[in-house]
Amino acid sequence: MTHKIHILNGPNLNKLGKREPEIYGYTTLGEIEQWCSKAARGPLEFKQTNHEGALIEMIHQAEDEADGLIINPAGYSFTSVGVFDALKIVEGPVIELHISNIHARDALHQHSLLSAAVTAVICGLGPRGYLTAMGAMYEMLDARG
Ligand code: DHK
Fold first, then answer.
1. Which phi and psi angles does 90 have, rounded to 5°?
2. Are 62 and 6 in contact (CB under 8 A)?
3. Per-residue pLDDT tens digits for 19-63
4. Does residue 82 have its Cβ closer than 6 Å to ligand 1?
5. Nearest-angstrom CA–CA distance, 69 and 92
6. For the chain, what are the domain ranges?
7. How far is CA 84 from CA 12, 23, 41, in A?
8. pTM of the entire structure?
């Protein structure tokens, strides 16, 4: 079965590979996008923005166009009621994804406001977590028929 997935990435993830590699590793966002494109079982949109309003509009677009949404909201996980409200609008499955294990991090990065608005949360698997999230998303969408 083919399913259309949108994968959205929030602020500073365009700097993966050189940003705090001891936390996020050396893989770039471009490399992650290539892995995801190869793993896709249907149309895939893979996007990144450093702007909160743009991320909210991307969520609205996913709600209109995608069967499922995977989002790494990055820093907005801890601050954004606007992103929370946008995620509540999405009817299909939403996976919140973090490269790092946010629960094992400093107090600022421990509590995602957004987790209460999503279907599932994956964190701490490193960049490969994107592929885990895609597999889980396809399973959920297949189960829906
Ligand atoms: C990425 C970020 O930019 C941080 O703000 C989050 C998340 C964690 C990640 O692990 O992918 O705390």
1. -70, 125
2. yes
3. 999 999 999 999 999 999 999 999 999 999 999 999 999 999 999
4. no
5. 7
6. 5-144
7. 19, 25, 28
8. 0.97
Task: Count CA within 13 A, CB hemisphere, residue 109.
Answer: 15
Please check whether residue 114 is in contact with residue 77, taking contact to mean a CB–CB distance below 8 angstroms. Answer: yes
Q: Give the pair of three-digit tokens for residue 54.
A: 């743009």
Q: Is 12 in the pocket of ligand 1 (CB under 6 A)?
A: yes
Could you tell me the CATH superfamily of domain 5-144? Dehydroquinase, class II (3.40.50.9100)
* Closest C-alpha residue for ligand 1 atom 6: 74
Is the pLDDT score of 110 beyond 90?
Answer: yes
